[in-house]
Amino acid sequence: MQSASTHCRQENEKAGKTRKNLRSHVSRMEHQMDNLKAQPQLKPTSVRLQDNKISPLSGNPYFYCILTKSHFKPLYQVVLPSKLQQYLPSAMVPVELTFRNKSWKMYYYGDRGCKRFNMAWRHFVIDNKLKIGDGCVFELMESSPNILRFKVQVLNGDLPSDFISNIGESESSPIIID
């Protein structure tokens, strides 16, 4: 049987641990709040999904890009990020992009040093009137040795013309994506 003083001491130790854990938790929360306060406040923007249709991602692998000059003529090039390449074949494979219930066919060069879509990407660009500053989200819907299928969402960027003329042209005007 425990004495009253032993029981009291154990209860005080438990309460002390609880207070310590609570202080630690509060301290972490205060630190998180300070970090939130330090972040710049977002400003309203004109960027919106074309046709005002927002489709949540399904949980499949995806990548996004803000379109720059290299996505347009003469190269019409979309390089797929390395984080996605683990889901893709290491071969040249047909690709189907789907946007607004319409499809575009092209090829993925997975057997090259630069994993990318071929120049048939230009048909998607032209048909959808894409421009520098627009954003594209490519969600991988199917990946097999026979075909890749991506669902694409396009966000209208409407960047100011004085910004577009210098975007990504030199080290003094890099493209920065957070």
Task: Note the topology.
Blueprint: H1 4-38, E1 48-49, E2 62-66, E3 78-79, H2 82-85, E4 92-99, E5 102-109, E6 116-117, H3 121-127, E7 135-143, E8 148-156, H4 161-164
Parallel strand pairs: 4-8
Antiparallel strand pairs: 1-8, 2-7, 3-6, 4-5, 5-6, 7-8
Textual characterization of the structure:
Residues 17-26 have a biased composition (Basic residues). InterPro entries: B3_DNA-bd (IPR003340), DNA-bd_pseudobarrel_sf (IPR015300), REM16-like (IPR044837). Residues 63-158 form the TF-B3 domain. One of its GO terms (cellular component) is nucleus. This protein is an alpha+beta fold and 178 residues long. The chain has 2 domains: 1-39; 48-164, DNA-binding pseudobarrel domain (At1g16640 B3 domain), CATH 2.40.330.10. The chain contains 4 helices and 8 strands. Strands 1, 2, 3, 4, 5, 6, 7 and 8 form an 8-stranded mixed sheet that branches. The model is unreliable at 35-52 (pLDDT under 50).
What's the gist of this structure?
With 178 residues, this protein is an alpha+beta fold.
**Largest sheet properties:** 8 strands, mixed
CATH top level assignment of the largest domain? Mainly Beta
The CATH architecture name of the largest domain reads: Beta Barrel
Low-confidence stretches: 35-52
Number of helices: 4
Shape: globular
Residue share in β-strands: 25-35%
Q: Mean pLDDT, as a whole number?
A: 75
Give the total of beta strands. Answer: 8
Which class best fits the helix and strand makeup? Answer: alpha+beta
**Relevant CATH superfamily of the largest domain:** DNA-binding pseudobarrel domain
Could you name the CATH topology of the largest domain?
Answer: At1g16640 B3 domain
State the end-to-end distance: 62 Å
Using the CA coordinates, give the radius of gyration.
Answer: 26 Å
Query: What order do the SSEs take from the amino end to the carboxyl end, as H and E?
Result: HEEEHEEEHEEH
Assign a percent range to the helix content. 25-40%
Organism: Nelumbo nucifera
Subcellular location: Nucleus
Protein name: TF-B3 domain-containing protein
Pfam families: B3
